[in-house]
C-alpha cells in the first residue's frame, strides 16, 4: 500500500506557528500527516506566514497541483480580514478556483471555519465588530464552497477550544502545541470517517513543555511587535474608520443595517461564482450553491438556487453552529 500524498496550503496557522520544534515550526498539518496512512504520508507544507487567498491561488496552488496530492488542506482567509484590501467577492472567487482545481484533479480537500481574530485579541466591540463581520463572511464562503465541492470541512470557529487559553500561544492568534494537536485530531476523525485516514490519530497531549514566559515575551517583543507595526500601517486607519461607522449606527439605533448590507454582500459574492459543467450523465439539477444549514441570512436575502453544481458528498464535522447570521463587513 503506497503512502498518501498530502499537501498543505495556507498561512501561519498551517505553517505551524505556535508549535515550535527545534529551530522551526511543526503544526497541526504535520501532526495530521503522521496519521493519514501506513507507511506515513508523503507530506509537503507550502503554507507561508502572512499568506492571503491571492497567495494561495497564484503561488501555492500551482506548486501543489504539480505534486498531484491525494489530500490537500486549504486553510486561509484570516490574513485577508486584517488587510485594508479586504473584498469578500475576490476572496470567494479565489477560494472557488482553488477548490475547483483540486476537485478536477481528484484530490480530497480539507477546509475549516476559523475563529474571529478580533475576539481572540480581546478588542473592544467597536473595533472587533468589523473584523467579526469579515471573518464570518470568509467562514460563510468557505462553508458554502466546501458543500459545493464535497470537501472535508471542520467547524473550528467556535467551541470549547476557542475559549481555552491552554490551547493558544502567547500571541492569542495562533494555537499552541495543544491547540495544533486538537486541530489534527479533529481533522483525522473526519478523514477516518470518510475512509481516507487509515493511520493512528495524533496524540492529544503535548510532546514538549510550553514555552517559558521569558521566551514568549521575547517572541512578542520581536516578531509580535513587527506584526503590530505592519498592521498599523495597513489595517488600523481603515479599522478606525469602520469603528466610527459602528459608533454612528449604534447612536442612531440602525446597527441592523450593517448586518443587512453584510448579508447582501456575501450573498452576492457567492451568487456571482460561475458553475462548473455537469459531468457526463449527471443531472443538471444535481446540486446548488447554498448557504449551509444553521447559517441563515436575513429575510429577503439568499443565494440564488438556480445555479447548479456537481453533486458531491461533503464531509462536515457535526458541531452546532452559532445562531448568528454570516455576514462580511459593511462598507
Structure description:
This is SGNH hydrolase-type esterase domain-containing protein. Residues 8-181 form the SGNH hydrolase-type esterase domain. There is one protein chain. The longest helix is centred in the middle third of the chain and has 25 residues, at 125-149. A hairpin with a 2-residue loop joins strand 2 (20-21) and strand 3. Helix 11 crosses helix 12. The protein has helices spanning 12-15, 28-33, 53-66, 78-81, 88-104, 117-121, 125-149, 160-163, 177-193, 213-234, 236-252, 255-271; strands at 5-10, 20-21, 24-25, 42-45, 71-75, 108-113, 152-155, 315-316. Mean pLDDT is 82; it is low at 279-288, 290-311 and 320-331. The chain is globular and about 65 Å long. The protein has one domain (5-204, 213-316): SGNH hydrolase (Rossmann fold). The protein contains 12 helices and 8 strands.
